Amino acid sequence: MVDEFGGKERYIVTFKRKDRRKDKEADKAEILQQSVGPRLNFVDVGAAVAGFAPPDDPEGLVALDINDFDRPTVFAALTPGEAGVLSRDPNIESVEPDGKIYALDIVPQEMLFGGGVFGGMEGPRFAADGPSAQADVTPWGISRVKAPQCWDATKGKGIYVAVLDTGIWPHNDLSGNLLGGISFVPGESWVDGNGHGTHVAGTIAAAMNGFGVVGVAPSAYLYAIKVLSNGGSGQWSWLMSGLYWMRTHYGCTFDVANMSLGAASAPSAVESYVNYAAENTLLVCAAGNSGGPVGYPAKYAKCMAVSALKSDNTIAPWSCRGPEVELCAPGVDILSTLPGNSYGTLSGTSMASPHVAGAAALCRGTHRGLDMDHIRNILNSTANDLGNPGKDDLYGYGLVDCNGATFWRTCG
Q1: 335 exposed, middle or buried (CB, 10 Å; 0-12, 13-18, 19+)?
Q2: Which of 53, 106, 328, 403 could disulfide-pair with 348, CB 3.0 to 4.6 Å?
Q3: Catalytic: which of 350, 353, 367, 401?
Q4: Strand pairing of 261-262 and 100-103?
Q5: Predicted structure pTM score
Q6: CB-based contacts of 161: which residues, under 8 Å, 6+ apart?
Q7: 3-state secondary structure (DSSP) of residue 194
Q8: Rounded to 5 degrees, what are φ and ψ at 47?
Q9: Phi-psi region of 65 (alpha: psi -120 to 50; beta: other; left: phi over 0)
Q10: How far apart are CA 224 and CA 227, in angstroms?
């Protein structure tokens, strides 16, 4: 792991539940501080309000605190010596190195097949003149997943979609749908300074407003949960904080969350946060862009892994594949929103995943009495089969079909 703070590295410190600790009366922050030299600034993730962003932390003195009985965790920068002492503390379950996660639009061509790169960044290609100012442009992916056939019945109004990404820029084409955001990236607000999260958000819910582009669910509500920096990378601990906050935020219940991010491996503590968030929310994830096995968090059972298609309905060569893939969606040359009220194209499983997140919002719009596990099953059962008959490692159950899912009806 990269040394970021002069001898310190980021760690995930998971405590035993308070009723199982040796020191039952001591707070976990107090226990941690006993083994750490400088005084830390503990930030209660669950108490963070909309618009929150952690302070800039060049010396690694801010510790994000999950103050939860069942999953007591602190994310902090420690020296290897401090981590070693904590790992032997009888009050602590585990001490794991934190790790990097990345936005999953494709890396430059020369890096795709030789370096084992899981994800990466390539600058978007900006539309020369932008979409028409007089009419909504329907990008090819929106048509391919049959979203327009649903809009007379539902545009996703009243459905809440969280975008865990680089943030969202307040684009004119997202006006009315973007409710706000929160950041878990030190020193950065939730407003997107990269472009990735804004592009993802536009595919999900760019508004039907007479200009620009239109998203899969053009009336769904969007909320930015910033867990990747403006540079396009982040920490697993930032994602875990975002998932926890999303699950415990009582301003609304998020129906769907899109995670167009990941890495080839993950600390063991991450899965419990994924499972907790999935109790209320359908988690839709990019499969990855190395052309190899599905990465994390998409690999987890509680996440829907999405692979990327080219315009001829064949798998993109760089799209990750494996038994975890559930659905596929358009992911090459996808036109969407970018900061500065601009538009441009990006490619990657990052671009495929929000098509499925938008489809889930539409399906939820006509099946509000069903929980999100049922919505997930409907999306899978109504997909258009591609590749080998039945579910396969490239296409999963097939190309997501908004029309089939939105108008699905139970028998009897």
Answers
A1: buried
A2: 106
A3: 350
A4: antiparallel
A5: 0.94
A6: 204, 205, 217, 220, 221, 222, 223, 254, 255, 256, 257, 258, 357, 358, 361
A7: coil
A8: -90, -5
A9: beta
A10: 9
Selected catalytic residue, list 98, 171, 192, 196: 196
Specify the CATH number for 102-406; select among 3.40.50.2300, 1.10.238.10, 3.40.50.200, 3.40.50.11190: 3.40.50.200
CA distance 264 to 260: 14
pLDDT tens per residue across span 318-360: 999 999 999 999 999 999 999 999 999 999 999 999 999 999 9
Per the annotation, the verdict on 196 as an active-site residue is yes
Percent of the chain residues topping a pLDDT of 70: 92
- Catalytic (active site) residue 393: no
Residue tagged active-site, from 105, 165, 192, 401: 165
Q: Which helix (H) or strand (E) holds 349?
A: helix 349-366
Place of tokens 């792991």: 1
3-state SS assignment for residue 325: strand
